[in-house]
Amino acid sequence: MATANNNRLPLHRGDHSFNLFIPPSYLLGPTIGNGEFAKVKLAYDLRTGVYVAVKTFSRRSGRYMMLDEQIIRETLAVKGLRHDHIVRLYETILHGNRVFQVMEYCPYGDLRKFINQKGALSEDHAREFFGHLMLAISKLHSVDLIHRDLKLENILLDSKLRLKIADFGCARRQIGKTLHTITGSYAYGAPELFRGDNYNGKLTDVWSLGIILYAMVMAKLPFRDKGTLQELLDERKEPPALAHTLSLECVDLILLMLTYDPRNRIPLQQIYSHPWLRARELSQEE
């Protein structure tokens, strides 16, 4: 099986966990992740000798129309999109009643697992990781693509410990100034999204980035995801508690991103110039 340092390794003849062949060239192996509609399996590409991740969908569930829409949306969203911090989708295969999305394999798993193992990250470490996310989201927003489901579980770590954004099943192109579809997770979603308002998708992604940065430095989420909708919205009107050991700049950036009223929330382009994020660039220049 692939190690964390190299995805290009030969498959051992005695490894019988890779026991299903998917044309044109993939041997499907053990499950490495589970979602609402799909399982993610490790696979081996016989053409290239590279391990890949394969998201497998069954169209027998009775919800296949919704599922097909999600698969098509995700495929179109990332088709031709190349970026160091976005998981690459190689191809989508229809085989019988199953659909397989062949993707880049990220052997260190997701960011939630990483934080659960490591605990709260230092600000320097969080700043490096957050910089990866900023580069990826900037790329998406530059082509008016809104992720809408940014969360720890959808951020993966590759063999070089670089963060990569995955799972574009909720992604939408923002044509015009607003979107209106409710989607994503209560724990990470912006208040205006769940109120049913028309919303600026770029600013809802910023809110989710604020939740993720909070989780990096606090090793927990700032808000509940259970309760009545009004209770959840009321909780988000107040700034979340932050450790007194955090720098004022870090606290300031988190609170600017987790601003309840999207009209006052910091936009993505201003995050780049925030003193907390700029600290890394300044230290590299010295």
Q: How is this structure best described in words?
A:
- Residues 26-277 form the Protein kinase domain.
- The chain has two domains: 20-104, Phosphorylase Kinase, domain 1; 111-285, Transferase(Phosphotransferase) domain 1 (Transferase(Phosphotransferase), domain 1, Orthogonal Bundle), CATH 1.10.510.10.
- It has a six-stranded antiparallel beta sheet, covered by helices on one side. A two-stranded antiparallel sheet has the order 7-10.
- The protein has nine helices and ten strands.
- It is an alpha+beta fold.
- The chain has helices at residues 64-78, 111-118, 123-142, 191-194, 201-218, 229-236, 248-257, 268-271, 275-285, and strands at residues 20-22, 26-34, 38-45, 50-58, 89-95, 98-104, 145-146, 155-157, 163-165, 172-173.
- The protein is 34% helix and 19% strand.
- The termini are far apart.
- Helix 3 (123-142) packs antiparallel against helix 5 (201-218).
Give the uncertain stretches in residue-range form: 1-5, 282-286
| Shape call | globular
- For the record, the CATH class of the largest domain is Mainly Alpha
Strand content: 15-25%
Provide the CATH superfamily of the largest domain: Transferase(Phosphotransferase) domain 1
CATH architecture of the largest domain: Orthogonal Bundle
Specify the helix fraction band.
25-40%
Order of helices and strands: EEEEHEEHHEEEEHHHHHH
Fold-level CATH name of the largest domain: Transferase(Phosphotransferase), domain 1
- The radius of gyration computed from the alpha-carbon positions, rounded to a whole number of angstroms, is 20 Å
Number of helices: 9
> What's the domain count?
2
Strands, count: 10
> Structural class of the helix and strand makeup?
alpha+beta
With strands numbered from the N-terminus, the spatial order across the biggest sheet is 1-2-3-4-6-5
Estimate the mean pLDDT confidence. Answer: 87
How far apart lie the N and C ends? 42 Å
What is the subunit organization of this protein?
single chain
| Main sheet: strands, sense, barrel | 6 strands, antiparallel
InterPro entries: Kinase-like_dom_sf, Prot_kinase_dom, Protein_kinase_ATP_BS, Ser/Thr_kinase_AS
Binding site for ATP: 55
Organism: Geodia barretti (Barrett's horny sponge)
GO molecular function, one term: ATP binding
